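Final report, Chapter 2: Outcomes

The project's central promise was a pipeline that accepts a single protein chain and returns its three-dimensional structure in a standardized token representation, suitable for archiving and comparison. That pipeline is now operational. To close this chapter, we reproduce one record exactly as it appears in the project archive, with the input sequence first and the structure output second.
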Amino acid sequence: MSIKDENIIIFDGACGTSIHAANLDDAVWDAHDGCNEYLNLSAPEVIIDIHRDFLAAGAMVLETNTFGASGIVLAEYGLETQVEAINHRAVEHARQAIGNQPGRYVAGSIGPTTKLPSLGHITVDELADAMNVQIRALLTAGVDLLIVETCQDLLQVKTVLVCCFDQMEKAQRNVPVMLSVTIERQGTMLVGSDIESVVATVEPYPIFSLGLNCATGPEDMKSHIHYLNHNWTGRISCIPNQGLPEVVDGQTAYPMTPDDFAKAMKQFIVEDRVTIVGGCCGTTPGHIRALVRELEGI
């Protein structure tokens, strides 16, 4: 069975906050403190264990630990020559976690980088050059789909989507491409575009799904998901944070219980035609387990 044949697709939860919660020894970071993607090389067992925990909770799709594995981000840690190695190893770790389990898939995670073309941080050509290398590496390593996520700039979106389809043609591989944008609490992407602009911009691209992730919890995504329900004919994804982050005793914390999270996600499926769900920042295997339980029979 292909992932395209699945009725409801359940993604895993947060990678970054799961790594943070692991309280890793300083030695695993070497000189690259804060670069989660470096752990694909230095602490593979940590990444594999995180994947296995989400699989045990019932996740159908594992996102690779490659959110910041483009040359643009890795250059900030002196790792720009390691793009292919890090992306390849990340896919291998997800595959190792899955083993022979049927109906489980690997999604190559492509983040927005730390530089947005619309704000003049980077040129479109420079962004495309970096994205082509990462996308090619993920495809070569054998991902089942690509997820372009946490998008904050429509110029970045268009650039990366073009790279995805160009690289698939060159690699003679055709995998689904998901697009997930981030809408801030004020109702727009970081550079000011609203969900209506997103739909109009990406309508010509043959993407597998369009949806939202990060920045907020399910509550602040309701109006945008409702808009997609009525104005986007393809699949809709919703991968929120575990509610809005709070600072508790000097630490970032996410307040939403697994059961509350699961009920909110079920509502999106029942009322707004969402068929791809999962968790972003803060979400644990417990949240995915509750989500799987809530969706039984749907």
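Archive annotation: The domain at 14-224 is CATH 3.20.20.330 (TIM Barrel).
This record, like all others produced under the grant, will remain available to the consortium after the project formally closes.
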